[in-house]
Amino acid sequence: MSQPKGKIPKHIKQKTFNHPGPDSQIILNLCKIKDPRQPSCNFHYSLVTVLFISFLGVLCGAKDWISKYVDVSSGVPSSKTLKRVMSLIPTDSLERLLNCLRSSLAEGDIIAIDEKTLRGSRGWNEKDKPLHLLHAWSTDLGICLGQVSVDEKSNEITAFPKLIEQLELKGTTVTTDALNTQKKSAAAIINQKADYALPVKGNHKGLYKDIKLLFEDADRKSSIDVTEIHHQEKSAGRMEEHRYQLLDIKGLGSVKEWAGCLRAGRVSRKRTKKGKTSLEICYYITSLLDIDKFAKSVRKHWGIENGLHLSLDVIFEEDKHRYQDKIGAANLSLLRKVALAVLAKDTSLKCGKPARQMRAATSPTYRDHLVKNCF
Fold first, then answer.
1. Fewest CB within 10 angstroms: 1, 167, 174, 204, which?
2. pLDDT band at 80 (very low <50, low <70, confident <90, very high)
3. Closest CA relative to residue 196, chosen from 179, 172, 160
């Protein structure tokens, strides 16, 4: 006689797992994640044990000291066990770890959104493409707020609104690249009661042409009101001069379907190095009225490259990790971002994140501090 669905056969002894503590916020959140394994399976390790060891492995490479927090009476899970479990957990279940970190999001923050490819997730078959993840990055806090996998059958454009909808963005300003300058993207941002500064390029030829002509007309006519500020910086023997401009485009027909669009922006970047000068001009649409906020948004957008993408590759060597299962690759990438946020939030050590990771690997006391105090 078959057992009712979801019931564990009587001859199978259920294991209970004790987590000796001390309790920390990360342990409490991991306990809330539903175990995707079949209840009839006689597994040796609780889901919390597997996830916590995976997190600590990412954070500092620790292989001992674990028993203070989770049950390892059956030994430490093998790499195959870790991979198998990580491939079973829906990525959105692990998102609760990022939820804890983004609860302190401040009004006025700049949220940069950009895509990163996990090169190590490419399959052996040339047709099996690597995993692409779309990230939201808090430029003020220096942490990743969320991620969404870019489906092979869709693209980054359709993933953008999904990422926006899962975040609390009220009072912030969202920036992204020209690919995601879409009407649905603008509407999703405005629905979250946030602002945006979106670059306009050739993928919107009509809009691009209208904005360009509008600014060229303003250059010729002093009667057109243009707000502008200048920013200058010097680094590595290179002088850069940035000119930020905003003008009213509420009456422009090509922006009527763009939710919340109030201004067009023009950013002129003049670079001088070794006597050679280059000029780059970019155009934007924005819901911002304040020129200082607009300039700050444009300047801080590319912080996601160094703050997140480069850190994942330099500190955690993400691109070198071979993991062909897309769910597992996304979950491990999420744990890296949580670990990166934990290292970034700690201020007890006056050093960079790589040095903090090294300290976590060698100091049980510092590991305790990170686990207990950074969530």
1. 1
2. confident
3. 172
